[in-house]
Amino acid sequence: MNDTPPAAAPRGLLCDMDGVIYHGSRILPGTLELIDWLRQTRTPFLFLTNSSERSPRELSEKLHRLGVDIEEGHFYTSAMATAAFLSSQTPGGSAYVLGQPGLINALYEAGFSTNDVNPDYVVVGETPMYTYETIKKAVSLVLKGARLIGTNPDLTGPAEHGIIPACGALVAPIELATGVKAYFVGKPNPLMMRTGLSLLGCPREAALIVGDRMDTDIISGIEAGIETVLVLSGVTRREDLARFGYGPGHILDHVGQLPALMGQALPARACASGAPAAKGEEATW
Ligand SMILES: [Mg+2]
Q1: For the chain, which terminus, N or C, has the lower number of CB atoms within 10 Å?
Q2: Is 18 designated active site?
Q3: Burial of 79 by CB count in 10 Å (0-12 exposed, 13-18 middle, 19+ buried)?
Q4: What does pTM read for this prediction?
Q5: Is residue 42 part of a domain?
Q6: Omega prior to 128 cis, within 30 of 0
Q7: CATH number of the domain enclosing 206
Q8: pLDDT tens for each residue of 103-118
Q9: Domain count across the chain
Q10: Cα dihedral 250, 252, 257, 263 in deg (nearest 10)
Q11: pLDDT at position 7 over 60
Q12: Which of 18, 120, 154, 217 is catalytic?
């Protein structure tokens, strides 16, 4: 890949996934056109998800099965954001983890070890491996002083056949039993967007956030100082907008309309590179 952006490089893109590029096992209109355009224009892009269950490789494989090829370096999950945050707070720390390989591997790669005796953190993500015994263990460790972290505050998530409990719902019993409130790293925490920008190698003034939810994607973009685009292909409907005390910068029906917006309506500003930057590289905001 040529890392030199063209002279009038468009903005970098932080793009939500569910309700934006796919829904369930269906690719949404405009997704293939958007990805073609991102590649042709060498626009830096990251696909974000609050789900901590899948690793970037698993997400890449899932999209491949749906007919879209995106390299694993273009995915950013709440598990990766959590690992980056915890390693910045406690380098080489330890955690008792209730989560799937997507979370466990991200923590391991960030230099964390697992510990079920006296960990620095109890970290909770989405997982079907959730039992009374694991809640009991998590509660006892938090009461002994471990900090309680959730990868994301979502109470539910989409599944093939309906709605399933997500991280926020799994953390709740531990919060209730300990009286300790968890710290959640994923959206709407703007931390997720700021660390995503860092990976993108893009100053916030040159980036754009695209999502389908006002209460996670758009609010975190606004609070991170990044221009926002709401797409109406997912959760939020146009008639919902009046309920919120804030509004998106732009509203589109679907992501197929993004190239026109990014190429014409917005001033072109160059990012640092044509691909996501290496892990740990600092953004320049
Ligand atoms: Mg979404």
Answers
A1: N
A2: yes
A3: buried
A4: 0.86
A5: yes
A6: no
A7: 3.40.50.1000
A8: 999 999 999 999 999 9
A9: 2
A10: 0
A11: no
A12: 18
